[in-house]
Design goal:
about 15% strand; single chain; 3-stranded antiparallel β-sheet; about 140 residues
């Protein structure tokens, strides 16, 4: 990431320290114009800035949208063929487009699968950490 982008992300991340739980909105000034941003939008921008600052990438997708198997693969960080297997095994729902071989997968199902994988990984990591702290070799 370029130094200027990192600096911008750092400034946006610093906004998080200024936001308190009792605030209803944040005033955004752009030149002579001003607009109120709700805390939920500020939290989204701050989370995005933090991800960019640490070198991660972001994908913005509405939960109501449908994605192709290739797009689902990108969201999950796996191959399209693996997504095809997830669909074939019923792990991810998909609908066939009329008069076509193409399929669409609900983005919400892809995001839920991603969260489930993340949760399982965190659980395994905590078990391994507890075993390590207890001196148990594995």
């Amino acid at each position: 990431m370029a130094q200027a982008e990192a600096s911008e992300a750092d400034r946006l991340t610093a906004v998080a320290d200024l936001i308190t739980a009792d605030q209803r909105s944040v005033l955004l000034l752009a030149g002579l114009d001003e607009a109120e941003m709700p805390p939920s939008l500020v939290r989204l921008l701050v989370a995005g800035a933090e991800a960019l600052r640490t070198g991660d990438s972001l994908v913005l997708v509405r939960q109501e949208e449908e994605v192709s198997p290739a797009e689902a693969a990108k969201l999950l960080g796996v191959s399209r063929q693996y997504v095809d297997r997830l669909v074939a095994n019923g792990v991810l729902p998909a609908r066939q487009l009329p008069n076509s071989r193409y399929r669409k997968i609900p983005a919400q199902a892809v995001l839920a699968h991603c969260a489930s994988k993340r949760s399982k990984r965190a659980g395994v990591a905590s078990i391994l950490e507890a075993a390590d702290q207890a001196g148990v070799s594995y």
